[in-house]
Write a structure and sequence with these properties.
The protein is mainly beta. It folds into two domains: about 200 residues, Porin (Beta Barrel), CATH 2.40.160; about 210 residues, Porin (Beta Barrel). The chain is about 5% helix and about 45% strand. The chain contains three helices and 21 strands. It has an 18-stranded antiparallel β-barrel. A hairpin with a 2-residue loop joins strand 4 and strand 5. The chain starts with a helix and ends with a strand.
Length: about 450
């Protein structure tokens, strides 16, 4: 009988616990972390007629949170479980409020696949793992939140992305971090189920159709997509310089490598991403690359960052798991800028007003994405379907963290003004303004 990773992890937790001398104290001394969370989204489309979104503006309000419990370690072994939920309070958000929704769909239940039930709440056990600590090394197995250049929890909505697999992180070598990740299944935002690694909305459509996923227009006859293995190393042995290198192997589909150097004082940052893709779902073998550069200047409580990125004209990068190739460089809210023959530019100003108003900070950014309209994206683009076009975007984020008796309370306001140029192949006007308001209470 074949056991899933989750089952094996839970069984391992039970066996490990039986060998411990004081199982009662492991639970008694465990730690419970809670979060109460609320999100409000509003999208104001420039054109609500048939030449644009052909519907009313979208909005939605969700309230939920999470409870995460972790036992105290016994002989290096501990276990954790995290329950997450999102709900529609009082039915305030109606299904009709999401007819033209795009980004706010993740506030509520989605799936299977691209279907969604706007305004419907749900709950999911997104974390359930066994952990073993020895020296400065941690090993996890089960359901967890995983972070590396290709997989990101992307926790900007109500319930983050979660992975079934295992992870090992070692800091035993001075100034060096080594990480090994294995991903078997993925739970997207808005989903209550874990699917194979091709079962995501950002998976290229040919892959989603080739394997058994909820997104394929036909039932894939090749079973589940292969698991994914990722490994990386970071080193800070040289003052002010951080070097890192990563590799990703998705058997029969894609191999990618990423190297990055961050020098804090003068040189700024350089990223080179050189993926070698080989898609067995077609007759094509595609090589592509992305180069990104940024530099930051800090003065007092302000930091100015300028960045640019360029993707080769040969192909899009494959990035199905919300690990954005240009994150921290040129990517802004809702944008994909690793399409073939895309150039992007971004300027961002971070300000910390803590000296004047405790807990207040802002981020102001402008980004321009110069896309090649003759290139057809691998998967549907936000607000553009299967066509490329230029985008200008302005963002303002305001964060306020309370202190004293209200410690643990956070307010976030995110404002976006986005201009999407029409093209000969895509003449719909999809420019819009978006407001996201979030309240968190952490305990």
């Amino acid at each position: 009988m074949k056991l899933s990773l989750l089952t094996a992890a839970l069984l391992g937790t039970f066996v490990g616990a039986q060998a411990a001398e004081d199982i009662a104290s492991a639970f008694k001394e465990g730690k419970l972390e809670g979060r109460i969370r609320s999100h409000y989204f509003s999208t104001d489309w420039d054109d609500n007629t048939a030449t644009g979104k052909n519907g009313s503006d979208a909005h939605g309000l969700a309230v939920g949170g999470s409870l995460i419990y972790k036992t105290a370690p016994l002989r290096g072994v501990s276990g954790a479980a995290g329950l997450y939920t999102t709900q529609n309070p009082g039915g305030w958000t109606e299904k009709s409020d999401g007819v033209t929704a795009n980004t706010s769909k993740d506030l509520f239940s989605r799936g299977p696949g691209s279907t969604y039930d706007y305004g419907k709440g749900y709950a999911v056990l997104a974390q359930a793992y066994l952990q073993y600590d020895i020296a400065k090394t941690k090993v996890k197995a089960g359901r967890m939140l995983m972070s590396n250049p290709w997989i990101n929890p992307n926790d900007t909505k109500m319930i983050p992305i979660a992975i079934e697999g295992f992870e090992a992180v070692s800091n035993d070598i001075d100034n060096t971090m080594i990480q090994l990740d294995y991903a078997d299944k993925i739970k997207e935002r808005g989903m209550s189920y874990f699917g194979n690694m091709a079962d995501t909305g950002d998976t290229p459509d040919k892959l989603a159709a080739y394997y058994t996923t909820h997104y394929g227009t036909t039932i894939g006859i090749h079973g589940d997509a292969p698991d994914v293995v990722m490994a990386g190393i970071k080193n800070k042995s040289i003052d002010n310089l951080e070097l890192q290198g990563w590799g990703m192997h998705w058997a029969h589909i894609v191999d990618q490598a990423m190297v990055e150097a961050n020098y804090k004082i003068k040189a700024g940052d350089v990223t080179i991403i050189l993926p070698n893709t080989n898609n067995y779902d077609s007759d094509n073998s595609i090589d592509t690359s992305l180069f990104a550069l940024r530099t930051s200047v800090s003065y007092g409580a302000a930091k100015l960052t300028l960045a640019t990125a360029r993707t080769a004209s040969t192909a899009d990068l494959i990035a199905p798991w919300r690990g954005f190739p240009t994150e921290g460089y040129t990517r802004s809210m809702t944008q994909t800028d690793w399409n073939a023959n895309t150039r992007s530019f971004k300027g961002q100003l971070d300000c910390d007003f803590n000296a004047w108003v405790s807990g207040l900070s802002t981020v102001l950014g402008y980004a321009y994405y110069d896309r090649d309209p003759s290139k057809k994206p691998y998967q549907s683009m936000t607000d553009r379907g299967y066509q490329n076009g230029d985008t200008h975007q302005v963002n303002l984020d305001v964060m306020y963290k309370l202190s004293g008796s209200w410690r643990g309370t956070e307010f976030k306001l995110r404002l976006m003004d986005q201009e999407n140029d029409t093209t000969v192949l895509y003449d719909k006007e999809t420019s819009n303004q978006e407001l996201r308001a979030e309240v968190n209470y952490l305990f």
